[in-house]
Design brief:
Strands 3-2-1-4-5-7-6 form a seven-stranded mixed beta sheet, with helices on both faces. Helix 3 crosses helix 7. The chain folds into two domains: 172 residues, 3-Layer(aba) Sandwich (Rossmann fold), CATH 3.40.50; 130 residues, no CATH class. The chain is of the alpha/beta class. The longest helix is centred in the middle third of the chain and has 14 residues. The two termini are 22 Å apart. It is globular, with a radius of gyration of 19 Å. The C terminus is likely disordered. Strand 1, helix 2 and strand 2 form a beta-alpha-beta unit. It has ten helices and seven strands.
């Protein structure tokens, strides 16, 4: 069964996750410095009898990293904290409370084993109810989603019975009743059980000790796009993509590294021995009109390093 994050996320790569794994193959070590919704890892083919040595993910957004950490350790607790109806005053109150948690952010960066279940549940609940950007990162006040009878956390879950057919989330049917939220979170937790979740600067998880010291390593790089315009991600940076590209080029010839770098056409000047793949993004508010989002959806590219190979046996056929 394909797993998906239970929240909306700009720039997710679920549509091309299968392609990434064709180029990476069944690598014994995997590193994802910009984890986001985790679409690539969650779509990794799990081969019978496979024993994955290490999977390490990271995100600079403390709330996002905390959600994945907490989910992997206590899915029932996160589900309980997230199970709440959409209420505007609760959204505003929880938003203000969450952004005031300074100690939480310090602990997330300082302690790789720290997590907060309540913050994880409230964060994902609000993310599924909040209109636009800024959830947990600005002091602005915004209305909850009022269309489709309110989104709420269940707005991002699959069909939950006859009363839930309006849910337009492409996840598998999980049955009926409120048990589905905990059940689905439990399935995500099972997948993430051995995944190491870091929180901080991307460069902390691409050193030798995290990558090729563990053998052949797939490194999936999806930094914030500098040409995306405006503040798109919770933690943006105008120059991180440049730094990521430089790291990729310097390390691209290492036979133990299989690197994938995401960006827009023309954004990265990569060496000739890298393979550039074009693809078209779908979904999201920006692609529902004739605006910048739709234009950018045709500019998506992934550059694969020289030691990436098409691995048809992973998917039962030639590429």
């Amino acid at each position: 069964m394909t797993l998906k994050a239970p929240f909306p996320y700009f720039g997710g790569k679920s549509k091309v996750a299968h392609l990434v794994w064709q180029y990476f193959g069944d690598v014994p070590n995997y590193v994802e410095p910009f984890f986001g919704s985790g679409a690539v890892l969650l779509n990794r083919p799990i081969l019978p009898g496979a024993d994955y040595k290490t999977e390490t993910v990271n995100d600079a957004d403390c709330y996002l990293s905390n959600f994945w950490r907490a989910l992997s350790h206590d899915p029932d607790g996160v589900a309980q904290a997230a199970d709440w109806p959409v209420n505007e005053i609760d959204i505003l109150a929880r938003h203000k409370w969450l952004i005031a948690q300074d100690d939480f952010r310090v602990l997330m960066v300082a302690d790789p084993e720290y997590y907060n279940v309540k913050i994880a549940g409230w964060w994902v609940w609000g993310l599924c109810s909040w209109i636009g950007g800024g959830w947990c990162h600005t002091e602005s006040e915004q209305l909850p989603h009022l269309g489709d009878a309110g989104r709420g956390i269940n707005r991002k879950l699959p069909h939950l019975g006859d009363a839930g057919r309006g849910i337009n989330r492409k996840l598998p049917h999980l049955g009926n009743a409120g048990r589905d939220l905990a059940s689905y979170f439990g399935q995500l937790a099972d997948r993430l059980r051995k995944v190491r979740v870091a929180c901080g600067d991307w460069s902390r998880v691409v050193g030798d000790s995290v990558t090729h010291k563990h053998g052949v390593t797939g490194v999936f790089l999806d930094p914030p796009y500098p040409t995306s315009g405006g503040k798109t991600y919770a933690v943006d940076s105008s120059d991180v993509a440049h730094d990521v590209r430089e790291w990729a080029i310097v390390n691209g010839d290492n036979p133990l590294l299989r690197i994938a770098l995401c960006g827009y056409s023309g954004e990265h000047a990569m060496p000739d021995n890298w393979h550039e793949v074009a693809w078209k993004a779908t979904g999201g508010y920006g692609s529902q009109s004739n605006g910048k989002g739709r234009e950018n959806s045709t500019k998506e590219r992934i550059w694969f390093s020289p030691h990436c190979h098409i691995m048809p046996l992973l998917f039962g056929g030639a590429a």
